[in-house]
Amino acid sequence: MAVTSAHLISYTHEHDLIPLVLANCHYSFEMGVGTKIEYDFAGMERQLIDRLLYSKSMIEFGRFLEIDQMIYRTEVTNQSVLMKLSEKIPQQNLNGAVRTQICEELRRLPDVCRSLDNLDIAISFLKTTGGHPTAQLITFMVETLQIEDAMLSQKARQCCELQHTRALWLLLSFQKSKFLIDYRQSTEEVFETLQLDMYNDLDAQLEAGS
Q: How many structural domains are present in the chain?
């Protein structure tokens, strides 16, 4: 009964955690390797404590205080699916140069989201069917699953094998989060998966009437 809102920690993944992670990333570039990212975990910890934990009172759990834990379904689903994928097909990381080029080729949020949606479909099958680690991912997506425009990155089509599926998913997810932060105020980017030919300006008559 003594618990109040002052005891609770409220945050959102997009507006609170992702900016904190990006603020504590150190980028460096090496010839032949590409972009290298290092995370300042100590800095993240300090900022988390300052922003979310400092001044909050501790709650002691007793027999008369029961608080259910809340776990977001998407977080459990993603973790579970990627674990099952790794059990079926041993996973490897992409090298830095390949990751950098894929990111350079996917410069729009709709392109990233569409690629991620297609990859989600592929993962939902691969976690069950498995496959040879060195088989081309694009071949599986196009020939087996019949997905049109399965990958919008030429580098991903060339280099990604089934053993790189998890690494590609993590890369695209990270890129999506970065774009959501960068374009938060852009009305165009609200419709994440629409193609460019579906955007049209209002004509003068409609705009005047609105």
A: 2
Which contiguous run of DSSP H or E holds residue 57?
none
Is residue 59 in some structural domain? no
> Whole-angstrom Cα distance, residue 38 to residue 17?
17
Cα–Cα nearest to 39, from 47, 49, 31: 47
Q: pTM of the full predicted structure?
A: 0.57
User: According to DSSP H, which parts of 89-190 are helical?
Assistant: 96-105, 109-129, 137-139, 154-159, 165-182
Return the amino acid letter for 202.
L
Q: Is residue 203 part of a domain?
A: no
By three-state DSSP, how is residue 205 classified? helix
Quote the longest CA-to-CA distance of the chain: 67
Closest to 15 in 3D by CA, of 176, 180, 189, 169: 180
Residue appearing with tokens 């001044």: 55
Is a pLDDT exceeding 90 seen at residue 101? yes
pLDDT at 57: 73
- Token pair in block for residue 121: 């479909």
Q: pLDDT tens across 34-79, in order?
A: 777 888 899 889 888 888 888 777 766 665 556 555 555 555 558 8
118 against 11, higher pLDDT: 118
The whole domain housing 33 covers 5-53
